[in-house]
Amino acid sequence: MSNSFDRTLLFLGIAWVRTLCGLFIATTSISIPVLAHNVDSSLGTTSWMFTCRIFGAFVGGVLGSTFAKKANPNKLFAAATFVAAVALYWTPSITSLTVLLIVSFLFGVIHGLIDSIGQMIILNHALNPGRYILGFHALFTFGSILGALLIRIFLDPTLEQPCPNDPRHYQKLILLPDVLNSFQYAFILPAYALFAAVLMQLLQVCLNTYEKVDIPKTSMSNSSIVNEPIKPSNVFLSFYIITLFFAATSYQVTFSFLHPFTRCDHFLQVSSEESATNVIWYWLANMLGRFFVMYLLQKNYNVRTIFTCVSSLLVVIQLFLEFAPLSAYVFMALEDVCGFLLSGVIPLCIVYASSIFDLCDGYMWTIYVGCNLLCMFNPVGIGFWMTIDTRGFVHALLISCCSLFVFQQLMFCSAKTVKTPHAQSSSSSMSLKAASSALSIKI
């Protein structure tokens, strides 16, 4: 087989699994009212599954970057995909909170493995790694759209936990029957697709696809930073990490609790079906926003200006959502606009930092601390807040977006404390690895 065919087969398998990873994340986020119903727990308690998944993704990313250097990535990919397929198939039937948390952690590990290994393969074997990295992460968002669409198709509101303002909320819940129901198909169908992906990965192992694909290492030479190392001050790093934290929190609040909020808010009074449909539009706007931000960055527009405009618009929209008497459809449309804007806050923050100093020079830990470790317990706190007050979703989003704007400006002001032996590099000179990390954070 030609090298071109081997490369196509290799990247097709990666794309297949990456899309289904995004599908699982969106599916579990939208279906948390059903999962909470299944395990007979409150929204706040069930939200621990998000914390377990975030920590699992951190562990998986570390393991993936370590073991991929010692073993055939196709074999690791096949094993991770198989475990993910089993977890996906099993999830809608789980009636134990402990088991649900374990499965969430497990899928987080698998997600981290696939994310790190997939990027490593692309960086080593793609003729145009920058474009493939962008597609790699866009497929995750595309999978999220498919996941939201599947839940909308198979949604059965009678299986969802009653809202806190529903008199039935504190009644003993009737768990899912052992027989198959429509909701489970939203998990089972993509699980079968993952099993098919395992076969593709095993085929690549038999054909030694990974070993056959090779390109000259000079393909990445134009993407590396050639300036001398620049050392950021502790003040700048502190504000940068805090800005990342509030950027990740804002993003985390919306994609984790958008459906639980809109279906239960007594001001909106929309059905579960309408809420699930809005989530589809949210993820579509999120994907378009990601492409729009990358388009602006490729045009070499000022990163600081773009980032300021995005965060300012987010604050204005949150003030409208918090205080303006909006109709349900206007409210949900503004939530979707937030999805468009929020898709760029983490990449813009990382890209700005990479224009100040080389993130790959021993500072990649800042991304995972700000976007993963510090955000681990956000879902639990917000989940319990929404159990007490459904509008906690809006309050938390307003606080996080306002804090994002404040610490963003402090980060800009502290940039002058960065010790630069030469003039600051432009955003167009950021390393490919930093750009890849900007797109890869999935909280």
From TrEMBL:
Domain of life: Eukaryota
Transmembrane in keyword set: yes
Membrane-spanning segments: 9-36, 48-68, 75-91, 97-114, 134-155, 185-207, 237-259, 279-297, 304-321, 327-353, 365-386, 392-412
Protein name as catalogued: Oidioi.mRNA.OKI2018_I69.PAR.g10349.t1.cds
UniProt keyword terms in alphabetical order: Membrane, Transmembrane, Transmembrane helix
Family annotation (Pfam families): MFS_1
